[in-house]
Amino acid sequence: MKIIAILSTVFTIIKLSISNCYWSENCHYKYFSSKTPYEFVRGDIRDSFVKIKGCYAISVWSLVRHGKRNPGIDYVQNMLDATTMKYTIKFNHENGKGSMCAQDVENLYNWEADPKLFQNVHQIADEGYQEIFGIGYRIRKAFKDLLKSLDDKDYKLRSAYGAWIENGVKAFVEGFGNTSMIIEKSNADYDIMAPYEACSFYVKEVKNNMKTYLEENKYKNTSEYLAVKKRIQQRTGMDFTLTNKNITGLYDLCRYTSSGLNNTLSPWCAIFTKEDIQALEYVGDLRHFFRNSYGNPINEIFGRIPLADLLERFKTAKNGKGKKLTVYFTHATMMDMVYSALGLFKDEIPLNGTFRNPERKWRSSKTATFAANLMVTLNSL
Q1: pTM of the entire predicted model
Q2: Which residue of 24, 66, 242, 248 is 20 to 30 Å from 149, comparing CA positions?
Q3: How much is the average pLDDT of 174-192?
């Protein structure tokens, strides 16, 4: 009986010791706000395409956010600073500090950065190229009758200005199976895919206005967010107070070095609990809500501009003179603005920095992921 009791105790201890280990968990929280890999959340238009009996598609219009890209220069330094913490975490663990599991610490210590991540700043990543490639491939398969033979006059492909977006269009035509397709040149001054960039009022009064980020900053002072910082401090065993910049750097390492294509999460994610990631996701939701969406009425106005193009394209197609395929490539900001103009994902109680509603509709991890897209079809009898 004593032997049985001892064995039972041993098995219980083993079970408890691995229950909070990231490496052995079977179900991770994979929603990283606007830096969520497309493969973690996407559907498949080949399966979800609504086929109406007796009808056939005559025109497809789509707005596509660029695929996964490398971080911008403003974030790279924070991330580089954060990478050095893996040595401190290992040292702390070996000296009885922190609460991370041995395998998680080992995986983190053995992690090496892809040189492209920090060298090719703000450029499309290999995974981002494949994300857009896949969209091109699937859209042709979904509308095989409509898109099987396209003359140059039958389609329109254009991106907003920016090399990481423009290179994504190349991925789209490659996935579509026709690399000879004509890609219109982007416009650095103004385009319907990013009209807000040419508006000095938006840039000054919204994007660069600290009032836009009041609720985000308010949330970072709530007991929920402060508890996140405390948990990370305890798990890593750091003997200095982690700043919001430290937390952001660690979080960015987690989400930028996770892969949806390989369905793998970064060793850096082991630093966080599910509750931590959910709180950090909400920080992103607040930023997108107030800078790009319902938090400011001007955003809805900008969202109407691409939708006006959609209406005109379909009117022309209805008369038998339009494009079979129109695809614009843009930013998450534009996606958010279009959702606002359509009244999508709108909560009865607007997002705020005082309370995080876990049942909210506005979720940047679902609406503004890398390669997020909106597709509309015009059908005829």
Answers
A1: 0.93
A2: 66
A3: 94
